[in-house]
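Collaboration report, partner site 2.

Our partner group contributed sequences for two proteins of shared interest, and the home lab folded both. The records are reproduced in the order in which they were received, starting with the first partner submission.
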Amino acid sequence: MVRFGVPENFIGDRLPNLLCQFTRAFPAVRMDISVSMSMDLRQMVDADELDLAVVIALPGGAADTVLRRTRFVWVASDTFDVAPGRSLPFAFFPSPCINRQIGVSALDGTDVEWHVMFTSPSSQGLNAAISAGLGITVMIEDDVLPGMRIVDGQYGLPSLPPAEFVLLRRPGGCTPAVAEFGKLVLELP
């Protein structure tokens, strides 16, 4: 069995191809796939509930294998605007979420008045709120959709750190099937 975790924003067209390739090569191996928030996936690997997981992280995790580098950005709709002197509205995933944690930590170090006005556990919900112009959020640059714009440096927003998609492995040994699946993840474009 291979127990694999992945965040929703890493799925795209990569995951179906990866799963298809693996299940064709190893039809006798059972898969257990968990789609969740990166911080939850990290805890699941640490608790021996997953063999492998792709997570979004800040650079510098010593034991992490970097799959792709990107950056966190502030994002709003093309039509978003807020009147001067008004509290900035934000839309976030619920805690624990690295995007939320990065955004709140950055905002706490400023004089910007802000409030959370929308919370959703789904990317679709968050994207809908942003597209409707309800607020600002933190995303990785690769996730910005048409109709959205990066607002780094606007509205008094501080800069955000770089990010990485990394592959985590369960501490201890792994089965041959887990090792082969890990190799396929590393070969993803």
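Second partner submission, folded after the first:
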Amino acid sequence: MCRSIKTLRAPVTPEVSDEDIRAAALQYVRKVSGFRAPAAHNKETFDEAVEAVTAATAHLLSHLKVRGTSAAGGT
């Protein structure tokens, strides 16, 4: 689906910034909605979706357990 979203989990991407997570969320919401930039009447909903996906992604990455690494949540 979103081929331009890069893998953000360790060890594939050892350093992940908040900007990386938000950029992936934005790309996802753009792809799902079909809008690169929403019309004014959809902007609030679009922005809320980006924030929700950003939070879910950050939660996922901080709780993943990756075998053989000492990354956050590692074994």
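Feedback sent to the partner group on the second submission included the following. The chain has two helices and no strands. Residues 21 and 55 are 9 Å apart (CA to CA).
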